[in-house]
Design a protein that fits this description.
Family: Belongs to the cyclic nucleotide phosphodiesterase class-III family.
CATH topology: Purple Acid Phosphatase, chain A, domain 2
Pfam families: Metallophos
CATH architecture: 4-Layer Sandwich
Number of domains: 1
Largest sheet: 7 strands, mixed
Number of strands: 17
Helix content: 10-25%
CATH class: Alpha Beta
Radius of gyration: 18 Å
InterPro entries: Calcineurin-like_PHP, CNP_phosphodiesterase-III, GpdQ/CpdA-like, Metallo-depent_PP-like
Organism: Thiocapsa marina 5811
Domain Calcineurin-like phosphoesterase: 32-219
Strand order of the largest sheet: 1-8-9-10-11-13-12
Order of helices and strands: EEEEEHEHEHEEHEHHEEEEEEE
């Protein structure tokens, strides 16, 4: 039998910068900003494939907060610090603290969970945590497997997720790092969630799930499955070319995802890219 995992359930503190927005029907709505795969380094000038990752993250974070002034929460879906350094996590915390927004982080395969917990404190979430925002549940799921680039949920986390979804009739968004379904890039799909089919089967049985939102793939992705969406989001630094059998760089700009959660359970989302951002990854790169 898999070991049990206790759930963390908590409510978001009201944003100090945002306010409750209302849809055309007079219903309140909540706005989330997802940033993913910043790959920061201890040094401010650290680069990944030719991109100075801290500089690009700062640009994306500033753009997101400026253009979504009523945002309620920031969500970071892994690969936060590429060199897994203490100074990298300290820098990340300083940048996020400046926004005045609540923020929540889950690990990726390029992260150290002990350092995240030590340096990001309660913002470092997992293995399964539920965050209440308005009438929505935000579920944070650690999909990483120690020592592996691909992910695995495992029986204990799946059981905890099942418990979380059954405990409340509220609509839910699930955040994880690795993608649970194929994205039609052979090399990247070898690094997906190994038991993603079990996660999808669980979500198929729960009408509460409105979206699964991941990082890891460094590209925009969307697929509808039985009433909910599986969403992938561009990195705040380097982009991977979609639908490739082998590793390939995409020279598109860095970006982020905005999600709007409506009182009636509807979800709207779109990706925003910083098209004017000057620094792009090296097209000649063959891996990282």
């Amino acid at each position: 039998m898999p070991a049990s995992i206790g759930l963390r359930t908590f409510e978001v503190a009201p944003s100090t910068t945002g306010e409750e927005l209302r849809s055309g029907q007079g219903e309140p709505r909540r706005t989330l900003l997802q940033l993913t795969d910043p790959h920061l380094f201890a040094k401010a000038d650290g680069q990944l494939l030719g991109v100075t990752t801290r500089r690009s993250f700062e640009a994306v974070l500033e753009h997101a907060c400026t253009h979504s002034p009523h945002a309620d929460t920031l969500v970071l879906t892994g690969d936060l610090v590429h060199d897994e350094s203490r100074e990298g996590y300290r820098s990340l915390r300083r940048l996020l603290d400046r926004t005045g927004l609540p923020y929540y982080c889950i690990p990726g395969n390029h992260d150290s969970r002990p350092l995240m917990e030590d340096l990001l404190g309660p913002a470092a979430l997992g293995p399964v945590a539920v965050h209440r925002l308005g009438n929505w549940n935000l579920v944070f799921l650690d999909s990483t497997e120690p020592g592996q680039d691909g992910g695995r949920i495992g029986g204990a986390r799946l059981a905890a997720l099942r418990e979380a979804l059954a405990a409340s009739p509220s609509p839910a968004v699930i955040f994880l790092h690795q993608h649970p379904i194929p994205v039609q890039s052979d090399w990247m799909d070898r690094l997906s969630v190994a038991d993603g089919d079990e996660l999808i089967a669980l979500c198929n049985r729960s009408p509460r799930v409105k979206a699964l939102v991941c990082g890891h793939i460094h590209q925009e992705f969307e697929q509808r499955i039985d009433g909910y969406s599986v969403l992938g989001t561009p990195s705040t630094c380097v982009q991977f070319a979609p639908r490739r059998s082998e590793f390939a760089i995409d020279t598109r700009a860095p970006g982020y995802r905005e999600l709007t959660l409506h009182q009636n359970g509807a979800l709207e989302t779109h990706v925003v890219r910083l098209d004017g951002y000057p620094e792009r990854a090296l097209r000649t790169a063959r891996g990282y």
